[in-house]
Design goal:
The chain is α/β, with parallel strands linked by helices. The protein has three domains: about 190 residues, P-loop containing nucleotide triphosphate hydrolases (Rossmann fold); about 120 residues, no CATH class; about 220 residues, no CATH class. The protein is built from 19 helices and 17 strands. A hairpin with a 2-residue loop joins β1 and β2. About 0% of the residues have low confidence.
Length: about 550
Amino acid sequence: MKIKALYLKNFKRFSELNIEDIPVDNKLVLLIGSNGSGKSSVFDAFGYIDNIIKCDVNVNQEFYKYYKKNANEQMSIKLCMNDSEIILTDKLLTTPNNIKDLNTNSFYGRTSFRQISKLTRISLGQGDSLEIQKDNDRPKSFIERDIRFENDVEKITAEILKDFFRNNENNKIKETIIDPINKALHNVFNHKNGTSLQLIEIIPPLEGKVAQITFKKGKSEFHYNLLSAGEKEVINLFINLLSRREYYQDTIYFLDEIDLHLNTSIQFNLLKELCENWIPENSQIWTASHSLGFIEYARQTQNACIIDFDDLDFDVPRTLRPVPKENAEIYEIAVSKEFLPSIFQHLNVYFVENKDSVHYAQINLPHTIFIPETNRNGVYHKVKEKNLEYKGIVDRDFLSDDDIEKIQENYPNLKILKFYSIENYLYHPENLHSFYEEKGRKYNSDAYILGLVKAKNIVINDIITSIELKRTEYPYFKEPDWNDKKLQERFKNKEENSIQSRIVFEYLKSDDYAIFLKSFSLKKYATDMPERQNISKTELSKTPWFIKTFKNILTN
């Protein structure tokens, strides 16, 4: 069972949320975003459905009050899975027959409130009518504490006793319980100094004593209660899955904040171990995080996608899709832009405008990372100091050749494109030729160039009237300590601005595309030309021409 799209209306903090385009083969869906961004509300939706299909929760006014954003409006949930679509409303959910395509084990969730700091039970049977196969000990909402760990211990110790007395085979106990746990612990903690954490025994709570779950590290043996918080998080999770995995083979697992108390490398190893060795192949795991380790694993693995919830207003309708993994912006959830250069100190760090980072990343320039900044001014303020170790790339916009020479002379960390914007490279006649040639499709370069000239000449007068004013928005040379008055006035409402603007006018008047593309935006204009239709920008940024051109720009 795998979800490829999810729709929530009037649910928790979402007025209307649509998550779509999840690849059908994705085993991992990672929700990223800062605290309070709405990630856990998605898990509440899964828990809501789980409560209804299990029919063991009292569906009353208080129940709906917890989930509804607006008490006076209808709530609805839509799930699109491999080969089925299920639509649920708050009215229909009271009739389980309407969700007959789901079974009682279709969902399995863990809240972030799950750690047991120490064991407390001193005898078996304290689980109060426990039916693990029905998961009736689960928290009924994602704000409740998850107390399943000691129930899992009780189930596992019962199995150990049953196997021992029926089969008298200690090896079977080792193979089915001890070995899988220890293999997982080795893969996650991966200590190279001989102090790997190992489980050596599980003895049930008997004779007024809590369960004896004993571990070994180096030459020392110690009880579960003495593990670190991070070690307990990992042990808790694997014991839980070992105890219940047999019931959940075709399931949506939704596990909140399983990276708590773990460092970056262990975060990566834990998610890798879960996805590759513990979650059944027909199942899908959804988890939420803002940790670097989880983001990096999701970025590297093929069957995973990342959904970005950060800094969004969910009082208005939102449609979210998997973010491009090559986009360095995904790392900003874990580490702010200001700290990225020090983290990636072995790399060349370029700040670039907004979503341009997606296209720059296609270049695959060795030891280089591209970090998105909101706009041109944001990039400029990141790199304007000469002594900084990182660089920036901005669009040319309405700059003259002399402007560019002066800017790059005074701001050596800032590179300025030769043409108006990155789209002028993506839709450049030579880049389209490179694209169509690779695809084996027909392309008439001369006809395309004539079309560009025609499109330019239709709007040229409108463009020219706005250039001087647009240039006053540029940040260059506006610091108060500049001694050169002409430089200070170059991007103000002064004569120096008018002089450079007239040079830009001349670029636009030319019918030579190598000249007018300096100042004519292919992002805004000529968008309906047939040569540009049904081609994604990402594909155009992968052509040999584009890659070669930008390698020259960035290395010279």
